[in-house]
Design goal:
Strand content: 5-15%
Shape: globular
Structural class: alpha+beta
Number of helices: 3
Largest sheet: 2 strands, parallel
Number of strands: 2
Oligomer: single chain
Helix content: 25-40%
Distance between the termini: 26 Å
Length: about 80
């Protein structure tokens, strides 16, 4: 989605009534937090308008799966 849309958050909000889960993977196919997408901004915008659906973390493991997944969870939840 980050390639075709100029404003990813605006597009998500536009179709929010049709979304019950959000699959998150970075622009380089690695886990969230290991690429260029600001997932905290996206998630904060969605939660501000009442989205309570599931977030599904997707991505390829670059080196250490535990460390990569820890970064992804911290990115999506906002906890370090």
């Amino acid at each position: 989605m980050n390639i075709e849309e100029h404003d990813m958050t605006a597009e998500l909000l536009r179709y929010l009534s049709h979304i019950d889960e959000l699959r998150v993977s970075n622009n380089n196919r690695l886990y969230p937090g290991l690429g260029g997408i600001d997932f905290r901004h996206v998630i904060e915008c969605l939660e501000a308008v009442g989205f309570r659906g599931a977030y599904v973390i997707e991505g390829n493991v670059e080196k250490d799966p535990v460390s990569s997944l820890g970064t992804a969870v911290a990115t999506v939840t906002g906890y370090n």
